[in-house]
């Protein structure tokens, strides 16, 4: 017999199937991050890098299940609850928060993949010199506490979402990427540069990565996963996912093109690693506004992000924040930029969700909220990261000893080299 | 005009789309298996390893189409039919078996991916010393006959499914993984250890794999594919896929964490390859119970599997079963363990499908059926594998000659090295 | 309240979700193409190869958005419009063409992935000696103009689709693969062979690729993506996607098996790279008829393509078209073969879409249309490619200078080697 519920139930199933597939795509991004970081660093640290990325996901998933999800989405959203949640530990309870028609386990799978992403971003900036034990501890704290608090503020219905003009960060340029990027910057600053990164004259010397194939394969995998990241953030099956996917494509493509052209014009040769980072920069940039900008806006954001990332990398080089893979520039700087860009290029006016941007006649309301959101998240993450890394430095220590750094973390931290030429 | 059929037809389409996507994820696991095996072995055999994995899928798919599917799912399920099928050769006939609302071709695609997995598991344990011709013949027999018979007993509606308390192996801890793992153990035993694997003193000497990046990239790809493997085994769109995915995530994560900690405590350093194997061990372990356990059960299974795999690897080392990638431990031992764990941790009582496990007040009924299923499959596969490998050894021969083994299978078996440094 | 629109709207959402997922799978093929090309060539050019594949997608996507989509699908289809479109630039306008129930952005995402594939195919044949600047320009022209015109003729509703018995190329054996393959042949001929490819005696000398792992990993990724390519070409959710997926599996498997056996019989050893190319040849071959052939037809097409590709590679070797990865043979020759095979093995008679093939009692009508389509596309693409490459050769130049070719394109074109062994 036909009943209203039947049609609805099919729609519910479709929503759940689609978001689970999107979550799987985002989980695949873990491989992409590992490959990019491994490719842009030296072969003597490659096993350490894969191990860090593996544990980001594994420890992060266990802790996000136990704690993080409750902090991000649990309990009611008034008072202190608009800053931090606290219900639904271990995903237990019938009243646990989920979104729309999504089964709580499907929503969790999507969210846990995002949490792992935030943690993984930091890995790259701290590569080639961080103690594995400290890394594990750091990664645990961001997955269980820091990232979930930031998510609470917006996707968990907290104070940023409760602004008169709500902050808008569709898929996480700020919540995921800038959170990762700022933590990365603090971590890299606490660690100091790798041995040999700056000459006796204080000038930066490039330490080339050991494998462009790994790096660009990782970039392609990240691109693929980003369709789940952005289009999946609609959190239901909707025809809107098409435009979101197109914006994702265009911004990434424009970012790669712009970064390539910028290096070509600056140094006379199109740089491959930077083109890959440009793709990622464009993707990070459009993530906040993937639903609210049009194709032109996506291209402008991508082009700008692709240029910005090149100059940001130079800037951090100059101030001696040694970030081997450019994570701070890609995720931190372009994450902030992309979030602010919503206030400029939003073409959509949806009551209580988002207002039109400045360039589309919407005034500065949305832009102001974007500034508030970016500034608040940046300030909180900065302070939290300083406390975290200062504590780790004072206790277990952050950095491996120089001999280990010179000989490679693979053998010293893990007992075996990442590459073996044994017969 | 509205009609009942219309709503149903959309649901049917959704089921088919979802299971086809899940099948594609499982097919992607072929790349994961190839990478893990290649990474954990030496560079001189790398082309051989990729070729074996390629042919597992290609020859396996052709034979499963021609023969295997009919053996697993064809004909009626009484009498001899509860042990072996025999209808629907070449997927022909209108009455051919499929599941629920699935188109027979969609169901076949999902099943053929599983068949390829079972065959591929063996490859790792027999790496670096098996004649390619023998490998091809073995792989053909498992895809066409051995694996399909085992599937017949349970998923094909055979005698294990017909037990008063049916055996429960949701996505194949026993049917797929243990079948592969036991065949792998027999194969490795028939072959004998690689030259140099044991010193003059009889003690094992590690032969390090040539590339952690390949191995862990493969592990990530397997993780991604496992969401199709487990959640797809619901064989329809259902909100249950969420909990299945979460159990998969938690068990894999717990397995990696436990294996890492076990090696850290045993040897003083967290071992990267073993952490990867721990992830796979956790995934194999939860595969049987992915639908019937809760999050806590999944974590317990994963933690246990992660510890078990480390000790199992040491055990097979000691008894001189040389398994270069740990396939017997990961798939055989943890496959059996995970299947038995259903009898302990099942929280679901579903008439004629599964009973609650011992720890959830369900008595020993399910556990007994699990023991029967594991023992029966193990016994059958063991005997079949002994016959198979004894026959191959007596005819075409199993092992390459020592010079070839020392110089590498790539050049001798395939004519070219896997890596070339030509200008 | 129930309404007809509600059921329809769920179906529409399902169609869009499925095709977006299929598009993502096709986009993943970019990584596969990059890996195959990189693996089958030398390490000194590997960064250049990844950069080319990255830019194929990025520049291609921007131009297909701006221009290509309008040329392929825009405007009305009569008169000149049956040869070239011209509306919907930048995907703008409400009346923009889409297919069936697909959102225009979803359809675009699927189509842009195909456009990138066509461009990428050429890269392999021109590897290791093409100026990057020329490559960029070529790639732009094919994505913006040449490929879209070919698509217009058939999928855009143009003259090939308007034949009394319409040309049938389900997922693009001709439109995508042969277009890429013929352009590749012309490009390789204009470039001339790599230094050292032919001895002083004029005989070909093999230049081995540097990494079978990269090449076969890429092959696996292409296989996975091909399910999106072929099954997605149904352009809606339908149970037909099952049979399409099975045909894809069988033809690919048969192609790999046949190519392996052919090399085994010819040279005494089963060749790994050629087995991989055989898989791709089978996939290319079945792409035109994936919907209209049955399993047997798919196997026959795959077996034939696997044999053909081996001999085609030898043939181009002999006539001194130096195609480092066999792209002309795989995509050009097997693309043409597979398209013609529709006229032989089609089992489906669907009014105005396709007729039965010769071997299934359908007469020669479909075969004649297939010949017309293949010949017309081949002729157009050949002429367009000659004009394109002649123009590039006469202006910016096609080929790097000999010193750069010998030392590698990575350092000369991009400033850094693809692999670094720095400490």
TrEMBL record, chains A, B, C:
GO terms for molecular function: ammonium channel activity. Pfam families: Ammonium_transp. SUPFAM superfamilies: Ammonium transporter (SSF111352). Keywords: Ammonia transport, Membrane, Transmembrane, Transmembrane helix, Transport. The chain crosses the membrane at residues 17-36, 57-85, 105-123, 135-155, 175-192, 212-229, 241-260, 272-292, 298-316, 328-348, 368-390. It is found in: Membrane. InterPro entries: Ammonium/urea_transptr, Ammonium_transpt, NH4_transpt_AmtB-like_dom. The keyword Mitochondrion does not apply. The keyword Protein biosynthesis does not apply. Residues 17-419 form the Ammonium transporter AmtB-like domain. Belongs to the ammonia transporter channel (TC 1.A.11.2) family. PANTHER family: AMMONIUM TRANSPORTER (PTHR11730:SF6). This is Unannotated protein.
